Amino acid sequence: xxxxxxxxxxxxxxxxxxxxxxxxxxxxxxxxxxxxxxxxxxxxxxxxxxxxxxxxxxxxxxxxxxxxxxxxxxxxxxxxxxxxxxxxxxxxxxxxxxxxxxxxxxxxxxxxxxxxxxxxxxxxxxxxxxxxxxxxxxxxxxxxxxxxxxxxxxxxxxxxxxxxxxxxxxxxxxxxxxxxxxxxxxxxxxxxxxxxxxxxxxxxxxxxxxxxxxxxxxxxxxxxxxxxxxxxxxxxxxxxxxxxxxxxxxxxxxxxxxxxxxxxxxxxxxxxxxxxxxxx
Length: 280
Fold this sequence. Notes:
four-stranded antiparallel sheet, globular, 10 helices, three-stranded antiparallel sheet, 14% strand, single chain
């Protein structure tokens, strides 16, 4: 939003506190410290499974996942089946969780076939660097950074790039959706966010320089490589987002990570669909 200039168009103050993963965000929402939150694809499911329904108000996806299975220095993983017996990072309640489960599914493996190492998102790069895990689920720029710094390697199986689209959600504290003033602010915010994402799709080089090169201190060459591996952001209405969300629920349930499955439709509200449609 800063790079595109959209943040300046908001007519109210907005804060962007940073959290290390879905579980920490859920705690903050429950404490009333957040109105809406931008999360990966698993946190809304885990929250609902624990008895807290946090309505999804907007969905953002990329056809190609931003998550990458990345192996430690000195280890090359050529096929997903080679994950068997390895130590894998596991961040329950994070979008990384369902990505890893689906990778094992594609290899004909179960969670019991690997060693799961429970970690916080912030600890993943150091765990891979030190060899505390054999494979971690990372995002850029950390994949490229660790490849260059210590000789880590993305999993080489082409199937890894086809596992799941990279989906993120905005979900809301339910009380916020009963406040007309907050609803109007969320509409403004989502309109600006969608327009910012559209700007990013259309101005990839400017976005890569702003975020990866200038902010994350990644070289221009590596920034270009990261950008080349990304697919465009796609903004979905609630009806468009339900089928994939149901698939995620089913994956987690079949793996035993959810005691009971449920209908994905109940996780969404359509209050902001018109805003998304008009802005994308």
